[in-house]
Write a structure and sequence with these properties.
By secondary structure, the chain is an alpha/beta fold. The strands form three sheets. The chain has a three-stranded parallel beta sheet with strand order 3-4-5, with helices on both faces. A two-stranded parallel sheet has the order 1-2. Strands 6-7 form a two-stranded antiparallel sheet. A hairpin with a 7-residue loop joins strand 6 and strand 7. The protein is globular, with a radius of gyration of 18 Å.
């Protein structure tokens, strides 16, 4: 299966390690990690994590946290490479869920682990087309479709005490 579509690369400017992906059709460079991560989560249809180091883990947990706390629209988070991700997932389940109770079992369902690129593409396609629900346990808001909130959350900024409603980027 060969796809001919736009591939946007969100690159970080580092003294070493990262080079732009040769498959990018549009390359955007960022100086700061937090802006790059925001763009990943806000602009993507899904997040696919390949085996990597601290930066990969940082981006993975940022996406998880923003979805779990309802600051970003839930979207597929695919971890490629069962062998690589197995120990981390076991730690999340055994320590954070079962031993400590810091996360809920449904939070683990925000991730999908696979070795099969075609399975990952099919999952993302099915969710994007509405054939499959992603994170159905999380509430959905009208803002999930198109948000005008300037500070980038799903519900905007609360107005000062006594005022009605929320402040949007256009207020």
């Amino acid at each position: 299966m060969l796809f001919r579509s736009k591939s946007v690369g969100l690159n970080i400017l580092l003294p070493h390690e990262q080079r732009p992906n040769p498959y990018q059709t549009l390359s955007l460079d960022f100086r700061y990690f937090f802006i790059r991560k925001l763009m990943f989560v806000k602009s993507s249809l899904a997040t696919v994590c390949m085996p990597g180091g601290f930066g990969t883990l940082d981006e993975l947990f940022e996406a998880l946290t923003l979805m779990q706390t309802l600051k970003a629209t839930p979207k597929p988070l695919v971890l490629m490479g069962r062998t690589f991700w197995h120990e981390m997932f076991a730690w999340l389940r055994d320590s954070l869920l079962q031993k400590q109770g810091f996360i809920a079992e449904v939070d683990l369902n925000l991730m999908h682990i696979t070795d099969d690129p075609a399975e990952a593409v099919q999952l993302i396609s099915d969710v994007h087309r509405g054939v499959k629900a992603w994170a159905p346990h999380l509430p959905r808001f009208p803002e999930d479709v198109a948000t005008e909130f300037g500070e980038g959350t799903r519900v905007g900024v609360r107005r000062p005490s006594g005022a009605e409603g929320f402040v949007s980027g256009t207020d």
